[in-house]
């Protein structure tokens, strides 16, 4: 199918029509969270209006409808990721997904002398759970370094994959630099050496033509709110054998087959890892979001964002005193930058006064900012529903801010 009419697509997102501080909103904080199309908002609304009931419990009609929609959403997300639905654990987001691997897979297996390999560009969600595991098992953390352009140093990474390394935790796409890591090649190498791989796909799922099966990893984590779905939704994909071997992370209703005071028989995966009442409406919305992105054509979404990224980068580079962090040849539409003499928070605050939303700070990636020797950056992150006119408005606002800051 042909590329969609992007002006029409934009009209699916009511929030984008609003004003902020008397100016038309320019929402360039998509790596933080994405806006939601009417179809997603409508699906959540419809659930509560028409068939709100708990899942997998009640035999009444509403219970069946809710269960069907919830399991249907798992199926939609599985199709979106190109994985089997029974290998997909629904959870609150990437943070939960990675912690699930840390507590259920890594904690019972790792021991003193083992090494967990992470990269310099990880989000804290893909660092801190491993530190907690390391503290409790005596394993240690090893860091794969990057080159100044924000790409992984592949020679160093391969050299770091020594026999002590039991697990490699790596972002598919960096939330600060936009770098797209060659995860296929890396996972192939890791597999050859018997290293289990955990890929953080938070920033990849919304923007790449993602095929999780083709990545060749052992675990893949995604978060729903960055891919136009509701907050509090996400998933962990894992190879079936691993899911079967792993003990449950949380205990409660739904994750069991039979409970007595003599012992409990756990449910099969993925339900074994879904204790308690889930975010039913949220997952139904996420299923709709996955279909929405597929409907646009993920090749078209990726191409549109690359076109916006090229325009944005070219214009930004023309502004005096701008330093861009992350210039990898293969990157998503995420641009971290600083303006000479200005603090990132001041830039973001003054941009906000002109209706422009960007994130400033450390982006939950302290070690990465330490590498670049800066306390904070501004980050503009674009999505397919952004426009070339918004890029022009952003540049005008930034020039004004630069003048204001002298
Ligand atoms: N990893 C990366 C690369 C991210 O960008 C984010 C969200 N900023 C996360 C993990 C955490 O996602 P969540 O807060 O939705 O669990």
TrEMBL record:
<dbReference type="InterPro" id="IPR015421">
    <property type="entry name" value="PyrdxlP-dep_Trfase_major"/>
</dbReference>
<dbReference type="InterPro" id="IPR010970">
    <property type="entry name" value="Cys_dSase_SufS"/>
</dbReference>
<dbReference type="InterPro" id="IPR000192">
    <property type="entry name" value="Aminotrans_V_dom"/>
</dbReference>
<dbReference type="InterPro" id="IPR015422">
    <property type="entry name" value="PyrdxlP-dep_Trfase_small"/>
</dbReference>
<comment type="similarity">
    <text>Belongs to the class-V pyridoxal-phosphate-dependent aminotransferase family. Csd subfamily.</text>
</comment>
<protein>
    <recommendedName>
        <fullName>Cysteine desulfurase</fullName>
        <ecNumber>2.8.1.7</ecNumber>
    </recommendedName>
</protein>
<dbReference type="InterPro" id="IPR015424">
    <property type="entry name" value="PyrdxlP-dep_Trfase"/>
</dbReference>
<feature type="domain" description="Aminotransferase class V">
    <location>
        <begin position="26"/>
        <end position="394"/>
    </location>
</feature>
<dbReference type="Pfam" id="PF00266">
    <property type="entry name" value="Aminotran_5"/>
</dbReference>
<keyword id="KW-0808">Transferase</keyword>
<dbReference type="InterPro" id="IPR020578">
    <property type="entry name" value="Aminotrans_V_PyrdxlP_BS"/>
</dbReference>
<comment type="function">
    <text>Catalyzes the removal of elemental sulfur and selenium atoms from L-cysteine, L-cystine, L-selenocysteine, and L-selenocystine to produce L-alanine.</text>
</comment>
<keyword id="KW-0663">Pyridoxal phosphate</keyword>
